[in-house]
Design goal:
- The complex is a heterodimer of chains A (about 110) and B (about 120).
- With about 110 residues, chain A is mostly beta strands.
- Chain A has no helices and nine strands.
- Chain B has no helices and eleven strands.
- With about 120 residues, chain B is mostly beta strands.
- At the A-B interface, strand 4 of A face strand 4, strand 5, strand 9 and strand 10 of B.
């Protein structure tokens, strides 16, 4: 699986959009981009995933660049409960293999 | 609907004892995964089941670790002769994944079992 690079930490003001970047310059054509987050002392929580097109769900939006070498997770209106470590993962879907979580970005939402 | 559940939520044991950790995946999910997470660290993959079979056991740290899955549902991770370095949160995940069929195999995680070996 391709490796990802994320900033170790970010701050965001409550109510503002949180934009979390991820670089995956060695991504292959059949690898998906997944985002998970882990709130302290809980198991990782699935957020969103995509292949080529931008995706949106009730939690977040995922913007993937045209060359697919980077992506951005957008939390449109960050709340204090969004404080967590956010992981960007790339992998081939449907191989039933593991996720490589890396170290992620620690997002702190500030009141 | 019900998510992945794990038991116990916390386990404290003495060095040298055996422990069993249980995972109940989401109903209908064919794939099941075990990870562990040491304090302040990322997730470490341990083992993966497709149905009752474990095609990839390469992540198990030693022969003291074993896992089984019965009936394509519940899985048990067993650690024999526990050591202090086994202390971690053990996480289980499941996915709908059917091999050979292009479907979403997003993994959904349980809350984990915090194991402390004294």
């Amino acid at each position: 699986d391709a490796k990802t690079t994320q900033p170790p930490s970010m701050d965001c003001a409550e109510g503002r959009a949180a934009n979390l970047p991820c670089n995956h310059s060695t991504i292959s054509g059949n690898e998906y981009v997944y985002w998970y987050r882990q709130i302290h002392s809980q198991g990782p929580q699935y957020i969103i995933h995509g292949l080529k097109n931008n995706e949106t769900n009730e939690m977040a939006s995922l913007i993937i660049t045209e060359d697919r070498k980077s992506s951005t997770l957008i939390l449109p209106h960050a709340t204090l409960r969004d404080t967590a470590v956010y992981y960007c993962i790339v992998r081939v879907a449907n191989l039933g293999n593991q996720f490589y979580f890396g170290t992620g970005t620690s997002l702190t939402v500030i009141p | 609907g019900a998510g992945v559940s794990q038991s116990p939520s916390n386990k404290v044991t003495e060095k040298g004892k055996d422990v069993e950790l249980r995972c109940d995946p989401i109903s209908g999910h064919t794939a099941l995964y075990w990870y562990r997470q040491s304090l302040g660290q990322g997730l470490e993959f341990l083992i993966y089941f497709q149905g009752n079979s474990a095609p990839d056991k390469s992540g198990l740290p030693s022969d003291r670790f074993s896992a089984e899955r019965t009936g394509g549902s519940v899985s048990t991770l067993t650690i024999q002769r526990t050591q202090q370095e086994d202390s971690a949160v053990y996480l289980c995940a499941s996915s709908l994944n059917f091999p050979g069929i292009l479907r979403d195999d997003t993994q959904y995680f349980g809350p984990g079992t915090r194991l402390t070996v004294l």
